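Extended Data, panel c. Modelled sequence:
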Amino acid sequence: MNNKSRTKQVIIIRDDLDINVGKVAAQAAHASLGVLLGKDMSKYPTEIIAHITPEESEWLKDDFTKVVLKASKGEILQIYDQAIKLGLNCCKIVDSGYTFFNGEETLTSISLGPNYNEKIDELTKNLKLYQETPKEERMRKILEKIYKEENSSHKEEIKEILWNKK
């Protein structure tokens, strides 16, 4: 496998949804596969026939490089529209709302690529990595605040949780 892949796929998850890590993983998986499998499939396919581009072929033969980023709903829609205009491979994922979002269909993520890195980087260069859910981020900030308190009796436990250090 080549560590210097020329192609990649970027998955962008909404950072304003209060969803758990399992839901994030499911939405990212939908986005990753949707861009390839959503091309030539009928609603209920019995066969999957995908006509792939040279960029997709290179990505599939290489190391399937994926990067997961975060953005607001507005940013995601803007990036998706730009990707369409530029002719990039892209897929928009709208969750059906069966298990989250109170039964409401909700835009959760998009995927860009597989395409050549520089094409995707132009649209995503200002986004940050998706490293934690919004709830995890709030919890981390609360723990950091407690840790900074001089009289905290849980400093060692908090240190271990936040930074995996004993």
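Helices lie at 21-37, 54-61, 73-86, 117-124, 134-148, 155-163. This feature is highlighted in the accompanying rendering.
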